[in-house]
Design brief:
Radius of gyration: 19 Å
Distance between the termini: 28 Å
Oligomer: single chain
Order of helices and strands: HHHHHHHHHHHH
Helix content: over 70%
Number of strands: 0
Length: about 300
């Protein structure tokens, strides 16, 4: 067997960090952090890190005026995404949210159709039907639980949709600016909205949460937000977005397995089958005819 390449190791690291973040966030939300105060601290610190990193490396945060509306729209979408993120994990299990996130590529393809960057095909509609059938099975799997669990699943779907919308919106700017500079602008703008909405929770938050919770907060900032940003876009630069994105198909199942193992969360057979259908839909929509080989 050949040894994994550097890019493969970077992508594996990204998948593990993103997947583990669901369990980490669920843990800190059940051990003292309120959802909006958690988002306020996390995004405030991450925004500061990106600003300092960008200034240290690039010496500027300047962007062209014509790109300001797109950056503003991206910040609004990211703000909504973070609200869905924290409240979905506050209401539902991390394993359920992880499985539902597998629908993100389908939403990305739908937004691509709206923008005209994707062409509707029979294969796409088949993939969408399969994936959303999987989401329906996951929903049925949690239907017997409290209503909050189902609401958390709906918010998880909204999180997948808003992340797909954010990726499609910000993608063209990545050809002009570095990921660090883009994040140094978008994350602080999104943080302003989080601060305003989360002010009541943040002012009433008990900050005596213990060393373990604060260490996990440090991980949630530096790992899934900062380090993955660097590794992800370096991987895309080396092998392209299409091949890199294929690796993220592992994330929903890794996230669900980690939540079951680390948090002892239940996972029904309906949810497992639903997650498998979501993954099958992704494979169908990603499947392409082999490119002709150069002579």
């Amino acid at each position: 067997m050949r040894r994994p390449s550097t890019v493969e190791l970077m992508l594996l690291t990204v998948v593990l960090l993103w997947a583990l973040n669901l369990s980490v966030t669920k843990y800190v939300l059940t051990h003292g952090f309120q959802p909006l105060s958690y988002a306020t601290v996390r995004y405030g610190c991450a925004g500061l890190v990106f600003v300092l990193l960008t200034l240290a490396v690039e010496r500027t945060l300047r962007v062209e005026r014509r790109h300001a509306p797109v950056l503003g729209l991206a910040a609004v979408i990211l703000f909504l995404n973070q609200l869905c993120f924290v409240f979905s994990l506050d209401l539902a299990t991390a394993s359920t949210v992880g499985l539902v996130l597998g629908s993100t590529p389908i939403f990305a393809a739908i937004f691509g159709l709206v923008r005209g960057t994707e062409r509707p095909t029979q294969r796409f509609w088949l993939a969408a039907a399969i994936s959303f059938a999987g989401v329906a099975l996951v929903a049925v799997g949690v239907a017997g639980d409290v209503s909050g669990e189902f609401l958390g699943l709906v918010l998880g779907l909204c999180m997948a949709a808003t992340w797909a919308a954010y990726s499609v919106t910000i993608g063209p700017l990545m050809r002009v600016y570095s990921p660090s500079r883009t994040s140094a602008i978008v994350i602080p703008l999104a943080w302003v909205g989080i601060v305003l909405v989360g002010l009541p929770q943040t002012t009433s938050q008990d900050w005596d949460l213990g060393t373990q919770v604060w260490l996990l907060m440090v991980y949630a900032i530096l790992g899934p937000l900062v380090l993955t940003n660097i590794l992800w876009f370096r991987s895309i630069h080396r092998i392209g977005a299409n091949r890199a994105t294929l690796a993220t198909n592992l994330q929903p199942f890794v996230a669900a397995v980690l939540a079951v193992v680390l948090l002892n969360e239940p996972l029904s057979w309906l949810q497992i089958v639903g997650g498998a259908l979501i993954a099958l839909g992704i494979l169908v929509v990603r499947r392409r005819a082999p490119a002709p080989q150069a002579a």
